[in-house]
Specification:
Blueprint: H1 7-20, E1 22-27, E2 31-33, E3 39-42, E4 48-52, H2 54-63, H3 68-77, H4 79-92, E5 96-102, E6 105-111, H5 119-129, E7 137-144, E8 149-163, E9 166-176, E10 184-192, E11 197-207, E12 219-220, H6 224-245, H7 248-262, H8 271-281, H9 287-299, H10 304-312, H11 321-336, H12 339-346
Parallel strand pairs: 4-6
Antiparallel strand pairs: 1-5, 1-12, 2-3, 3-4, 5-6, 7-8, 8-9, 9-10, 10-11
Helix pairs in contact: 3-4, 5-6, 8-9, 9-10, 10-11
């Protein structure tokens, strides 16, 4: 898997962002884009000016129905035209937007129904939950980008062999987005020690960042103590899910699935067509076919389990952490795919 950030740096950056972030509830007609197409200005805050990150630009374009290619063209060639377009549509919409800022820049342009479950809340919940499992937990990978948080954890006490010398451990993957790019979710993972690959499968719990509309005057929204009170019951659900997935019973079920996949041989003549079908299904691109095939041959395992590991092995070589997780999730889906769907995949059918 992609190792991501050093754990200490990861934790420190989560804490730093918590102190630096500020959220605003702003009427669309109380803000406007400057003539350079680079900043949003809040009239109701004394003409305070904020730079705009790339994701927020994408969200602005989407919200006002401006095609992204045209938006980019205006950004590059006619920023004053971009400003004219954005400001015109903002004036016509009598609505409030939930604006998330970090380090003085707008990082997300969201609905007033967006309900944050922020990364610091995730970390606080884990700090209270994980010690109850014991000292056998280890963080294998963590990452914090502008858009998402990931933590991949294994329980080293839950360990067994799929085949002689092929040792796996139970794990979980926790992910979250503070900027509207996905729910908070916990997924189960089977972690393979021989090549340090993790196959992610089965979303166990998720929370959508939506709630009732934020009411009140324009200004700073969603104070942290309000969020914490709202999330207490959800944190109890998180606790129960983590305890369940890192239990012996759940691990035994996943281990049996892996052993069954190990026994599911793939005819040599079917390997390349199957890999081609997998790359199409998961939109990996043609360049990944050769590397998945090479990983499978190097592993010497022409079985369904061998294919799973060949797919997840690609996560080692991808700099984009989100994309590396896509490979891990694809491996997990192939591992737990029902037999009838697996047979269709083998035949190249949907």
């Amino acid at each position: 898997m992609n190792k991501g950030m050093n754990v200490a740096d990861f934790v420190e950056e989560v804490k730093r962002r918590e102190l630096s972030k500020v959220d605003y509830l702003v009427s669309s007609n109380a803000m406007y884009m400057d003539s350079e197409g680079k900043n949003l200005i809040f009239r109701n805050r004394g003409q305070e000016r904020f730079g705009v990150n790339d994701l927020a630009h994408q969200q602005i374009a989407s919200h006002y129905g401006i095609p992204m290619n045209y938006y980019r063209k205006m950004q590059n060639d006619k920023p004053e035209l971009l400003s004219l377009n954005v400001n015109r549509w903002a004036e016509k919409k009598d609505e409030k937007r939930f604006i998330r800022t970090l380090d003085g820049r707008i990082r997300a342009f969201l609905s007033d129904r967006f309900k944050p479950y922020d990364n610091m809340s995730v970390m606080t919940a884990l700090e209270s939950i994980l010690p109850s499992i014991g000292n056998s937990l280890a963080v294998k990978s963590s990452n914090l980008s502008d858009n998402r948080l990931y933590i991949q954890i294994v329980n080293q006490r839950l360990e067994a062999e799929v085949a002689k010398g092929d040792v796996v451990q139970a794990g979980i993957v926790i992910s979250n987005s503070e900027v509207g790019l996905g729910r908070f979710i916990i997924e189960k993972m089977i972690y393979r020690l021989v090549c340090l690959n993790g196959a992610i499968s089965g979303q166990l719990i998720g929370k959508t960042h939506l709630g009732k509309r934020i009411t009140g005057e324009d200004g700073i929204a969603w104070k942290s103590d309000t969020i914490e009170m709202d999330m207490k019951s959800f944190n109890l659900q998180i606790r129960d899910v983590i305890h369940d997935v890192l239990s012996q019973e759940t691990f035994n079920k996943l281990l049996l699935t892996a052993k069954t996949a190990k026994d599911a041989a793939i005819p040599a003549t079917s390997i390349e067509p199957l890999i081609e079908e997998v790359t199409k299904r998961y939109q990996f691109g043609d360049d990944s076919k050769g590397s998945i095939l090479a990983s499978m041959i190097d592993g010497g395992d022409l079985s369904r389990w061998g294919l799973v590991n060949a797919v997840t092995a690609q996560a080692h070589n991808i700099e984009d952490y989100d994309r590396s997780v896509d490979y891990q999730r694809a491996g997990g889906e192939l591992l737990e795919m029902p037999n009838n769907k697996w047979e269709l995949l083998m035949k190249g059918e949907k």
